[in-house]
Structures are given as C-alpha cells and as structure tokens.
Specification:
CATH architecture of the largest domain: 4-Layer Sandwich
Shape: globular
Bound molecules: zinc ion
CATH class of the largest domain: Alpha Beta
C-alpha cells in the first residue's frame, strides 16, 4: 500500500491524496488551490500522477478546495467512478457549475484558456453516480472496502475509512476530510470512525480554540440590532454553503424568541446560497435529528417571515432602495467578488450600518483589510471609506477546534498520523499536542510506502 500527497500539504487548499493498493489507484478528493495568484497557478500544473490511470475517486465533501479540480481530472483523461454521499453530489453540482463559470470569466479577462469549461464540469458530474451512505461499506475493488462517516462539517460531509485486505492481513486507513465543530444546529456532530492503523488528518484550527457558539449568536443579534436601531442595514458577507444556512437558522430562531424583530427584513442575495438552502430541505438524512424533525413537522428553520430570495440581478439591485432595517446576506464570504461587494460599497461609508463577518477571511482579501481596521478599501476601482460598525464573529466555524481535533484523534488511536490541510504553524502546534506515535507533515509530491 502506498500513499502520495498532491495538495493541501502544509496548506489549506487543493486537497488531493492518492492511495495505491492491490493494483488500484484511488484518489481521495481533488480540490482546487485557492487564495493567491501563485496558488491559483498551481491548479494548471501537473497533478503528479496520470489522471487516466486513476480507478476511482472518493469525495469527502463539496467544498471547492476538495472537489474543484474534478473537472480538470476528467478533462485530462479520468474515466473512473466518483463516490460520495448524495448530498455531496448535489452540492458539488452547484459548486462545480459555478466554478466553471468563474474559470471562464477569469480566462476571458486574462485572454487565456480556461482551466475547465461547463462541459468538463458536466462530464465530472456524470461520473458522480455512485452514492454512498454513512456507515454502509462499499467494496471499491476486491480487497478494498470503503466506509463513510459523518464529518459534521457541511451538508453531506464525510470521513472515509478504507480497509485493504491482502491474504490474511488487513490494514486500515482513515482520511478525516474536514471535521466539523460539535453542537451545531443543522448538522450531526462529527462521528469518529473505528480505530485505524493510519490516519490522514486535517488540522486547520490545530492551534486555536473557538469561542462559544452561544456568545457568537448573542454578538450576531447585538450587531444586527445596533444597525437597525441606528436606522442602517446589516450586511453579512457569507459563504453560500453552510454558513449562509446556519445564519438563516439563527435569524429564524432570533425572530421566534424575541432577540430580533419578528418581521425582520432579510435578503438572501446569492443564487448559489438559495440553491444550497433548498438542498438542506432535500437531504434530511444529512441533518441533525432536531433539524430533520423540524422540517418533517412542516415548519422551516431556514426561513423568516421577512425573507426575500433575490435570484436575478434586477431583484438584487432593488435592495439599493432599502435604506434601513434590513439584513443582507450575500457572497463572496471574503468580499473578493460577487454581489456583496456592491452592498459593501453602499453600506461601508454609512456610520449607521453594520458589516458583520462570520467566517474565515484570508490575508490579502478585502474582508481581511476591513477586519484589520482599514479606513479605506478599494472595490471595483473605487476608494470606499469605512464608517460602518465592523464586527468579526469567530464562533461560527465549520471546522473543529484544537480540542475537538485532539478528541477525535484520540478515538482513532492510529499508529501513524499524516497531518494535512493546515498552515504550517497550526500543524506544528497541533503536532506538539498529539500523543506519541509516528507523525509526518508531508509536502506536495511526497510518497510513503505503508
Ligand atoms: Zn471544507
């Protein structure tokens, strides 16, 4: 058995790991590198293996940094099966179509060939006809069995456990995928797979602890009410998958229990977030028992009375006329593009309004500059002054924090751990807290005989 690393090595994007056993070549995730121009350029590079020789892909979840190079894999000759949960497949359809669209725009701007097209994305989605269910083993090939466990990170997310049997010897290897935080309202808590010999584990937040969710929700309500009281609007730049739905859930709860005005006006100004929200209704099997029961009883925890979905551009532009009393959810989460940039251009200069960041903001993005206290930010070639009240709420993370990661690791007690999907500082801090055992921090292209 052999494993090699082709992304998210001492970094957080481009997840892609290759497991070779019994003559089979199985890829775990095939994500896009994101965050900087150098990383983006890495996407077009050689995978470090021949896509035509890959037998199957197991996809842990539908985030772009885990599925975003699948169309490229297909474009370069992959014709095998792609296994995932049903919810992951449906979310990936939204994510990959959007990604192909963005690749097209980017290529047009730079007068280059796109990384991949809508047709490539459709070809990849056509190979995703191999649904898996949590806890139900699937034989990928004779002697290679794979079982998915709910990772509690986003809808449909999974950790993958492989059992490779040769003669009388069985070796087990677990890929954590991205692990969620416990106690989140819409999803199950992460489920630890049975113990494994080898573990490939994410450690995004291996060096920090999250604030409590209750405090974060209280901060969210206070920030929104502050803006409403001043006669302004509250803009929440948000990721379309998961975070948008989680915020909708808390808005619903706040309107119900009196922490927010019962008729609060909310705009979900993101076609992708709207589509993802609809998938939550379609996949009760991937929801927490409580959320599934609420949907089953006919009530909708992702809605408020004053909620408007704005799908087309025209409806989105009408929000301009709303000068106060509204909450506007729009992407992108880091304000690097998308409809939220127009809302920010309008609301940032207004002292009565609030901008509330509820997710990760990478260095170099407008979100990061605003959070770090910039007085002026550039957007669409204009200088925008920042007078709105700025809030950064850190407790909504879709990722397990250090203690949650350590507890999860302890349940698997592996003989050997490979740390992936983390910045080097987080990785080293996390490594220092792991129990004794063989530990590796692989780099791109590294290969290990197991
Ligand atoms: Zn993820």
């Amino acid at each position: 058995m052999k494993i090699s690393f082709h992304g998210a090595d001492q970094g957080v994007t481009g997840s892609c790991h290759l497991l070779e056993a019994l003559g089979q070549r199985i890829l775990i995730d095939c994500g896009l590198f994101q965050g900087s121009r150098t990383l983006a350029a890495d996407n077009a590079d050689d995978f470090g293996f021949d896509p035509g020789q890959i037998d199957a892909v197991v996809l842990t979840h539908a985030h772009l940094d885990h599925c975003g190079r699948l169309p490229l894999l297909v474009k370069r000759g992959f014709r095998g099966r792609i296994h995932s949960t049903d919810a992951t497949r449906d979310l990936a359809a939204i994510v990959l179509k959007d990604s192909a669209h963005l690749q097209g725009d980017e290529a047009e701007r730079n007068h280059e060939e796109p990384l991949y097209t809508q047709e490539d994305a459709a070809d990849a989605l056509n190979l995703m006809r191999h649904p898996m269910h949590y806890g139900v083993p699937v034989d990928l090939a004779p002697g290679i069995r794979c079982t998915l466990y709910d990772a509690g990170h986003i809808l449909g997310s999974a950790s993958a456990r492989f059992e490779v049997t040769e003669g009388s010897v069985t070796k087990s290897i677990v890929f954590s995928g991205d692990l969620g935080s416990r106690g989140r309202p819409l999803l199950h808590d992460p489920v630890a797979p049975p113990p494994a010999d080898i573990l490939v584990m994410e450690c995004t937040y291996g060096d920090r602890l999250h604030r409590s969710l209750d405090d974060s929700v209280a901060e969210l309500y206070a920030a929104i009410n502050g803006a409403l009281d001043r006669g302004g609007n509250a803009v929440i730049p948000t990721f379309a998958l998961e975070r948008a739905q989680e915020i909708l859930y808390y808005l619903h709860a706040g309107c119900e229990d009196g922490h927010l005005p019962p008729s609060l006006q909310v705009f979900l100004d993101s076609p992708m977030a709207i589509a993802a929200t609809e998938l939550f209704r379609a996949h009760p099997e991937a929801l927490s028992a409580e959320a599934a029961a609420t949907f089953a009883s006919g009530s909708d925890p992702l809605s408020v009375d004053g909620l408007a979905y704005t799908r087309d551009r025209e409806a989105s532009q009408k929000i301009n006329r709303v000068h106060g009393g509204a909450v506007i959810l729009a992407g992108s989460g880091m304000a690097t593009g998308g409809r939220v940039t127009y809302h920010l251009m309008r609301e940032l200069p207004r002292a009565e309004s609030a901008v509330i960041f509820v997710g990760f903001a990478a260095v170099g993005t407008p979100a990061r500059r605003i959070i770090d206290g910039a007085q002026i930010v550039r957007m669409h070639r204009e200088s925008i002054s920042v007078r709105a009240s700025i809030h950064t709420i850190n407790g909504f993370s879709a990722h397990a924090d250090r203690n949650e990661l350590l507890a999860w690791h302890a349940q698997l007690h592996p003989l050997r751990t490979f740390l992936v999907h983390g910045e080097l500082t987080a990785m080293k801090a996390f490594a220092a807290r792991l129990p004794p055992g063989q530990l590796d921090l692989p780099r791109f292209g590294d290969e290990y005989e197991l």
